[in-house]
Amino acid sequence: MAGDTSLTSSPLTVAVQGELGSNSELAAREYFDGTEVTIVPCRTFAALFDAVNSETAEFGMAPVDNSMGGSIHEVWELLVDTPLPIEGEIFLRISHCLISHRGTRLTDIRRIYSHPQALAQCRAYLSSQQNVDVEEAYDTAGAVKMIAESRERDTAAIASAQAAADYGMEILARDLQVRQDNFTRFLVLSRKEREHGQEALKTTAIAALDDDPHLPDLLTPLTDRHLEILKSEPHPCPNRPWKHLLYLEFAGSASDPEISAALTELQTKTKQLWTLGSYPEGRHAEPHIHSRS
User: Fold this and answer.
1) C or N: which end of the chain has fewer Cβ atoms within 10 Å?
2) Can you give the pTM of this predicted structure?
3) CATH superfamily entry for domain 97-173
4) In the CATH hierarchy, which top-level class contains the domain 8-93+182-194?
5) What is the three-class DSSP state of 188?
6) Residue 101 in this model has a pLDDT that exceeds 90
7) How far apart are CA 236 and CA 282, in angstroms?
8) Each residue of 91-114: b (16+ CB within 10 Å) or e?
9) CA dihedral (113, 115, 118, 119) positive or negative
């Protein structure tokens, strides 16, 4: 079990972007495996952050990276706009299914809906489909819910097997993603920052910069101290007061005196620095079908 059930009384409330049956819900249930969890569905990532910040939910489960699609920039930017401490992380295997009404055949499908991330991860499959329109939806499970309610038998959605079970739909094809080692990393967010024990930790920070950073110079506070850098990714932000964000992750805890000194020095090289949390490295998990009874 990745989550610590001693953090709060059961059941836990966890905000996710999307409906029940989304991969974010499956990640929450894997992280807090063995604990009763109440899911708070949110239509957008911003609403997810608001739910945690307002204490509507105790935790948030936010996807930040995918092994195929890379960083999910909207979430990284929200970590700056609405900074929330990072409690932990989990890597969930993402398996995309084509889902439609019972009795529908593959040859009947004329329109496929899903979240843009899922569509991108299934691009090879989608390009092989003739005379089929592809349309974006706000959520994978939400797309299944939409076609279930519409009763249009020539439509399908790309989502999890859980979503098919939840809405009484049929899986027409499985594992549509380009790569089978398709994992999404989710951060567990909470307003209450928690001290971890002596286990190995990693730290996530974001820096605001005026110019495109010359990383070797910018990262000298870390490299001079021989810290293991796990992620250093600049991202242009043309509509913000600064020009770039730098996503930064490294091994160790921000409370360590050597790392604290490195962060203090790094802050002098940036317009602003947000240190979002030090937490244990997450495990890789397989999604499971959960009963709604």
Assistant:
1) C
2) 0.92
3) Periplasmic binding protein-like II (3.40.190.10)
4) alpha beta
5) strand
6) yes
7) 28
8) bbbbbbbbbbbeebeeeebeebbb
9) positive
